Amino acid sequence: METTKKSSILIVDDNPQNLQLLGSIIYEQGYNVSISSSGAHALKSIDQHAPDLILLDIQMPEMDGFEVCKTLKSNPLTKDIPIIFLTAVTDSEKIMHGFELGAVDYVTKPFNKGELLARTATHVELKLAREKLIELYAIINNRNKT
């Protein structure tokens, strides 16, 4: 019997109130939630356990969200983790910069709960579907070799 694993989401924000609010919202939807209050902590956390999705603030001290995204996307082990920027930054150049770095989506604060949950669910489903396709491709490839 196949068990379904709960998808995991990492929330990265330097504001404790944002972490608490977002953590509660995401947890209530049945996801496993991890939180990080800094970019450096997030990178260490991901080394231990790669999440299925990252909600990432841009404006953080020491290491901003852009730098975290760039670091993750340059690593073959973490490059496929979808990143949604969740930030108060609304400048269109910065939004485009986030996409250029590899983010899959961009949600501005204050956010609409329903919209955030819909975007989160969509990107988790896409990641899991992509993983399943890769797995099926490998199975088919192995059968064709025999």
Quick recap of the structure?
The chain is α/β, with parallel strands linked by helices and 146 residues long. The protein has helices at 16-28, 39-48, 65-73, 92-101, 113-145, and strands at residues 8-12, 32-36, 53-56, 83-87, 105-108. The protein has one domain (8-145): Rossmann fold (3-Layer(aba) Sandwich).
Task: Describe the overall structure.
- The chain has 5 helices and 5 strands.
- By secondary structure, it is an alpha/beta fold.
- It has one domain: Response regulator (Rossmann fold).
- Strands 2-1-3-4-5 form a 5-stranded parallel beta sheet, with helices on both faces.
- The model has no long low-confidence stretch (mean pLDDT 92).
Descriptive tags:
146 residues, alpha/beta, Rossmann fold, five-stranded parallel sheet, 5 helices, 5 strands, 16% strand, globular
Detail the topology: elements first, then pairings.
Blueprint: E1 8-12, H1 16-28, E2 32-36, H2 39-48, E3 53-56, H3 65-73, E4 83-87, H4 92-101, E5 105-108, H5 113-145
Parallel strand pairs: 1-2, 1-3, 3-4, 4-5
The CATH topology corresponds to: Rossmann fold
Gyration radius, to the nearest Å?
16 Å
Low-confidence stretches: none
CATH architecture: 3-Layer(aba) Sandwich
Q: How many H/I helices? A: 5
Instruction: Assign a percent range to the helix content.
Output: 40-55%
Succession of helices and strands: EHEHEHEHEH
